[in-house]
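Model it.
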Amino acid sequence: MKRVLVLAVVFIMLLSVDVASANWKIGILTGTVTQNEEEYRMAEQMQAEFGADRIIIATYPDRFMQEQETTISNMLEMAADPDVKAIVMVQAVPGAAAAVDRVREFRPDILIVLGSPQEDPMVVASKGDIVLNTDDIGRGPQIAEQAYAMGAKVLVHYSFPRHMSVETLAKRRELMKAKAEELGMLFVDEDAPDPTSDAGVAGTQMFISEDVPRKIAQYGPETAVFGTNCAMQEPLIAQTIANGGIFPVQCCPSPYHALPAALGVEVPEDKKGNLDWILEAINGKVVEKGAAGKVATWPVPVNMMFMQAGTYYAVEWINGNITSKNDKAALVRIMEGIAGRSVNLTEYPDTDNYYLYLSDHVVFQ
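Modeled.
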């Protein structure tokens, strides 16, 4: 019996070696360094991990709205290589749906993963095998819960009318407020200058720099702040830390978003895209400034997560470890392995392959 088992194990290993040694490639289509450096660095990381003979990288143009034909051509060029078994596109900018249609005409076998799509959800869901996007509305209650878990009794929400006219942002705020009040927190709305107005980014940042200390002085150190605009984040973080408040997460959760600049973390060239290094560097600065336990973010930038998870999923699918082009349980397993913490995926209404993503937070302490 033991001999049979040993032979079976050897046979499985030989099969695995045969599959792994077969010719296969994965194409990663992403933005340029000038569009989003984090995503491109992750593509390079995937190439370094699996080899340049396995991972090929192409970019869509910076002016992707005006040059959609280039995006389509670049995906078609990847699919024309018979060794390419999967394509991972992050971000799935306008032109992605048309590109997938063209690829499906002659390569229906290819696994296609689309991250952060910017076209109609139902259209994109019908094109990709797996589609990944942030659960922006679901973040509403999550942000309130995170602030509460960090000791907040007050949650200040900074925004402006233009953002509050956006349906998803308005709904997120509504759910954030409801959850905050359910948890017994005071929810405070505060209008800030719109960075696209005459005040500009400088005006928005000056207001945040002046108002955060006022709010923490008024409500006390158990005050958490959240802003809907990227330009707000650096002064929000800096002033919250300086005045002893709570910063639960950025508008776009990522260790790279505003945290290094607000904390004075210089990222050397050889550390760009190195998540372990940046998390450790941020943690050190937060502790040094006396804000341990009062600053949090998501552990992996969303688009880096989508690219890495999509690539890992593709490798497992190519090697036969995943047998379906759409295996939610396997996807959650892979994403939780990357994040090192719990991940939540929910299906977009009326789809079974368009996943809305929420990550647990990392609290620096």
